Amino acid sequence: MIFINPKTDYAFKKIFGSSKSKDILISFLNALVYEGNPTIADLEIINPNLPPQVEGLKDSYLDVKAKLNDGTLVIIEMQVINVQSFGKRVFYNAAKTYALQLPAAAGYRMLKPVIALTITDFEMFPNRAEFISRFVYKEVKSNFTYPENDMDLVFVELPKFTKEIEQLSTLADKWTYFMKNARNLTAVPETMDRVPEIHQAFEIANQAQLSSEELAALERREQFIYDQQGAIIKAVQDGIEQGIEQGIEEGKRQEKLAIARQLLSVLDDETISQTTGLSVEEIANLRTE
Fold first, then answer.
1. What pLDDT, in 10s, does the model give residues 69-100?
2. Among 53, 165, 238, 276, which residue has the least CB neighbours within 10 Å?
3. pLDDT interval class at 230 (50, 70, 90)
């Protein structure tokens, strides 16, 4: 079997945000937000439609949105590329979701909590070893939680998850392994297949179940992501090379300046200039230091 890559926006929404995905999403959220406890009994997936089959940045950020049975709103996003100010965007989207739920003239008591679950294919917090992080409002000194703590930010950093299949113990382990490795598997691991919702997720992710149009859309999305990652890597490499070149040139210049300073007391400015390659003006500036 060949499975689609759940880290692409199109596949992610097909697996977790379609009309057939409710049980899958409940298990996924219970695992990653509620430490495997069966906290969520029911939910409604909001706008359970597939993302548009159009390439480009404008449709590359698509959330799965759901309303839990207690009214809590959940937005889930899979992010592959670490774009500038991504952390601010996560916070903004959560705050916007919280604010826009209040109808005109409605009281603040109508507001329901918002959970923003973000899965990243890069490290958000390099100095933290755990792959799941959860942020809430707390008092700085005494660390007690804000009474109306209605907004949680939960992050799952896939690169930090390094367990092998035989090491999977929790439901969070199994779902994270699915997110990180499904594309590279050719069969459903037995330990994961025992979880009905993960079995169902693998069934949806099986390429054999997709139409030629869906496969073409997925290939375009993956190619778009690879192109963006390649552009970022090249930009970083170019920056490093440019920095090295600039560093070498600056090192040579500093060496010339050091030699010139040693010659100030024995040679005139023009002779020092000819000896070091510095301009006469630069030598004159050294004399005024």
1. 999 999 999 988 887 788 998 999 999 999 88
2. 238
3. low
